[in-house]
Amino acid sequence: MDIQMGKKQRVLIHILIVTVLIVLASPAYSSRIKDLADIEGVRNNQLVGYGLVVGLNGTGDSSSTEFTTQSLVNMMERLGMRIDRTKVKVDNVAAVMVTAKLPPFAKVGTTIDVLVSSIGDADSLVGGTLLMTPLNAADGQVYAVAQGPLAVGALSFGGKAAKVQKNHPTVGRIPGGALVEQEVPFHLPQDPILTYRLRSPDFTTVTRVAKAINQHFGEVLARPVDSAGVRITIADNYLNSMVDFIAQIERIEVQPDMPAKIIVNERTGTIVMGSNVRISTIAVSHGNLNLVISESAMVSQPDAFSDGETATVPTSDIVATEDAGNLVVLPMGVNIGDVARALNSIGATPRDLIAIFQAIKAAGALHAELEVL
């Protein structure tokens, strides 16, 4: 009986040890390297083109938009028709700019999404069709051609006295609306070295990436070169299969580090704070001053049988009230949750929090970067 109990205890201890090791080994809040970095030189390319959207129900550009009229006449003349420019109406046509991103390794014949935006005074692009539009890159060459019906997730209706609008009706998308006509030349490096670039440069994160790669392959292959770059030597058994080697690297998980930062937008009252924001011991008091000014008019009547005239005399009543300010002491080293709860306890609104954070930063007690949009 004692022997059986001893075996059961040893088994339970082994299971507990393995469980603890698994928990300790698993990265917390980790991300794949493919979500943090890119191979140097592998990137998207911006494309842009000018085109016409036709088939609109009287919501296109007006006759005062001269470039729309000129573009329509030029297109019709290229199709072999003679047009009198003075008699052309473009109510059902809109001039647009077409933009797209050409992904890396895109081959001829593949399709990409395009974004269509009005550049004239069109009211809506709903129901329109984009005519064949060449898309150029920064070098002036055509890499794709876009055409097709627009998908506009908006509506706009109205008359002379009222108008109803939902979302933005002068911008639409065409999923898979552009056909790639030319490839961007790119080849993976022939030498046994790859360089990865972090999308958000950080010395701590780049060190963790190099360490994770070396642990995964069991040898020193990765070496950080700066805050954004990791130079990786291809393992000997992957020299003839670089694609497999890159796939192995992309699946490795790393816990990225982030700086202590607070982003505030005074126009919308939006506040975003990182988890590493810390403050020193400081006392915060907040109170609102309300000033109410009301004006009224009093009628002044002259005495009987006098030469005076009835007059209106304005009077003003000014009342100033100030809410009681609550003094809250924030101790040193509190985390973001403690800061939020403490500031909410004094009744601070998002716009008040912006002013409070700016004051704490000016006092030197906020150990984080404060960025105002």
Overview of the structural elements:
The chain is α+β, with helices and mostly antiparallel strands and 373 residues long. It folds into 3 domains: 45-180, no CATH class; 187-254, TATA-Binding Protein, CATH 3.30.310; 262-298 and 312-372, no CATH class. The protein has 6 helices and 23 strands. The protein has helices at residues 2-25, 66-78, 203-217, 242-250, 336-345, 350-362; strands at 31-32, 37-39, 45-54, 93-102, 111-118, 129-136, 142-149, 155-158, 163-166, 171-180, 193-198, 222-224, 229-233, 253-254, 261-265, 270-273, 278-279, 282-286, 289-300, 311-322, 326-330, 366-367, 369-372. A hairpin with an 8-residue loop joins strand 4 and strand 5 (111-118).
Structural class: alpha+beta
**DSSP E strands, number:** 23
Q: How would you state the average pLDDT, rounded?
A: 78
Low-confidence stretches: 1-5, 18-27, 289-293
Distance between the termini: 72 Å
What's the layout of helices and strands?
Layout: H1 2-25, E1 31-32, E2 37-39, E3 45-54, H2 66-78, E4 93-102, E5 111-118, E6 129-136, E7 142-149, E8 155-158, E9 163-166, E10 171-180, E11 193-198, H3 203-217, E12 222-224, E13 229-233, H4 242-250, E14 253-254, E15 261-265, E16 270-273, E17 278-279, E18 282-286, E19 289-300, E20 311-322, E21 326-330, H5 336-345, H6 350-362, E22 366-367, E23 369-372
Parallel strand pairs: 15-23
Antiparallel strand pairs: 1-14, 2-11, 3-4, 3-6, 4-5, 5-10, 6-7, 7-10, 8-9, 11-13, 12-13, 15-16, 17-22, 18-21, 19-20
List keywords for this structure.
TATA-Binding Protein; single chain; 23 strands; alpha+beta; 36% strand; disordered N terminus; four-stranded antiparallel sheet; six-stranded antiparallel barrel; 6 helices; 3 domains; flat; 373 residues
